[in-house]
Amino acid sequence: MTKAHMPDVANMPLSNPLGTLDWVGMAQIELPVSVATATGDAVRSLARVQAYVNLADPASKGIHMSRLYLMLDKASSEALTPSSLTAMLSEFVQSHHGLSTAAFVEYRFDYYERRGSLLSGNSGWKNYPAIIRGTLRDGQIVLEMQVEVPYSSTCPCSAALARQLIQDQFSEDFTGRENLTQAEVYAWLGTSEGVCATPHSQRSTAKVRVTLTNTLSNVFDLSGLVSVIEGSLKTAVQAAVKREDEQEFARLNGANLMFCEDAARRLQSSLDVERDYADFWLRVDHMESLHPHDAVSIVCKGIDAGYQPVPSLS
Question: What is the pLDDT of residues 89-101, one digit of tens each?
């Protein structure tokens, strides 16, 4: 049987209720993705992809899903860039001339990168769950990228309470001693009595989504976004760790005590001045070691028609 004789239900008369649809397409498409980096390298990973167009013709049965898949499959052989994603969205609409006027695509994948240790000169692999998405609507292209970055947060309240216990222990141990030598105090600080209490800290995550100002560049700079986040928070979790790295990590935690509100405000301040990002939405989660629940802060840039400060973004 030739293709000419194959039935095409999508082109048959529509007997169901008429109506336009916001999005029609596919989700959970497994495809390799190669993301170009600012250094000229490419990071390859397995992505879960969503691809949609709208159905603007109320009398049409549906869209041509195979066309979307074939374009995604072809694009998977090349690096994903803002310019290539912009072109793909236009091709989605062009391939559905008369049916669609808008397009959407989203890649979810693990972005891997080697990050240096704090002091030892070693490096190790770190994974940052990432999203790249693009939307074409009303002739306008919007490109977004998102990363999730783990870090450590030490509670300022707990640190203050721990210091008070250490002070009380010092007073008890040296009752009646008005004159102490530096050597005695130094030796005491190195004992278990000298560190009789420690503040609680927890592994935390910063989830940051940004809208790009340049839709025609040659790189999705996920690494740059990670660096902005880690540079702002100061206490990113480590991969390769020697003792000097662990000690420096302890120092950084002590120098950067943070409630979730503090972490969110740090990121807000850093992202506000980044010219590559037209808009941002961020959420920080401190997975408490004191409580069985998490402490959360959310903030967005606050521009007209921009991201809204909702608890999560789809």
Answer: 999 999 999 999 9
∠ CA 212-102-35 to the nearest 5 degrees?
40
Q: Output the pTM of the full model.
A: 0.91
CATH T-level assignment (fold) for domain 14-155+200-300: Urate Oxidase (3.10.270)
pLDDT score for 103? 98
Pairing between strand 277-287 and 294-300?
antiparallel
Question: Half-sphere exposure (CA, 13 Å, Cβ side) for 159?
Answer: 14
Kindly list the strands in the beta sheet with 42-55, ordered across the sheet, starting from the edge strand earlier in the chain: 21-36, 42-55, 103-116, 123-137, 140-154, 201-212, 277-287, 294-300
Strands (E), the chain: 21-36, 42-55, 103-116, 123-137, 140-154, 201-212, 277-287, 294-300
Hey, where are the domains in the chain? 14-155+200-300, 157-189
Residue 41 is predicted with a pLDDT of: 82
* Cα three-residue angle 275-278-282, rounded to 5 degrees: 105
Closest CA to 254 of 181, 163, 179: 163
Contact in structure between 225 and 145 (CB atoms under 8 Å) = yes
